[in-house]
Write a structure and sequence with these properties.
The chain is an alpha+beta fold. It is built from six helices and nine strands; from the N terminus they run βαββααβββαβαββα. A hairpin with a 4-residue loop joins strand 4 and strand 5.
């Protein structure tokens, strides 16, 4: 599959747009319904993942700094997410030269209940402020462009840094799946709890009105 050239464009948060209007704004590879976006003022943008990116994606997942907090996918699963229209699979590009800095996956983009899941966000390097910028960009996409009513995620309890970030960005804890994932990293053999968090469209709009979304 030949990679298409995708020009980054600004994501406007003023008014929600239909999927057709949004898709018409920029060229994209087949199988994607979203285009590259830039989140000012942080130098960070998203572009659709290409099949040629998948070695990088799989490598980032199994990095020792990320592996304790996620359940890695097989390459074929990522390829399916790149191709299947219910998903959005993006490469995160950041910094002065917009180098690859991770990837994100959204699921439920065609959910009839307008419930969109932040399926995965994996970033590196750490400590550059990319996490907050990326989460804000994804919220704008979910509510303004995908017309989500609910934007949700689950996160391992041991991932205290991510939990603090999501809470500070307005996500509300909705429940816990106790000891629902097995942890077998670095000689450990036990279970961790998944914490479900979500934000509703009215909660997002209230944050926008208060200037909390940047």
């Amino acid at each position: 599959m030949r990679a298409a050239i995708v020009r980054p464009v600004a994501l406007l948060a003023q008014a929600p747009r239909s999927e057709r209007e949004y898709a018409a704004e920029c060229p994209r590879p087949a199988g994607h319904n979203a285009c590259a976006m830039t989140a000012p003022p942080t130098r960070l943008r998203l572009r659709p993942t290409m099949l040629s990116d998948l070695d990088y994606v799989v490598g980032v997942e199994v990095d020792a700094h990320n592996l304790p907090f996620i359940t890695p996918w097989e390459r074929m699963q990522h390829e399916g997410a790149v191709r299947f229209p219910d998903f959005r699979h993006f490469i995160v590009e950041a910094g002065e030269d917009y180098e690859r800095a991770g990837f994100v996956i959204l699921q439920g983009c065609r959910n009839p209940h307008r419930s969109v899941e932040l399926k995965r966000i994996v970033l590196q390097p750490k400590g550059q402020g990319y996490g907050r910028a990326c989460v804000r960009l994804l919220k704008r996409m979910a509510f303004s462009d995908l017309s989500a009513h609910r934007f949700w995620l689950d996160v391992k309890q041991l991932n205290s840094r991510a939990l603090a970030l999501y809470a500070s960005e307005g996500f509300v804890e909705e429940g816990r799946l106790r000891e629902s994932v097995r942890v077998t990293i670095n000689g450990a053999d036990g279970y961790d709890t998944l914490i479900v968090m979500a934000m509703l469209d009215r909660e997002y709009q209230a944050r926008v009105a208060l200037g909390q979304e940047g």
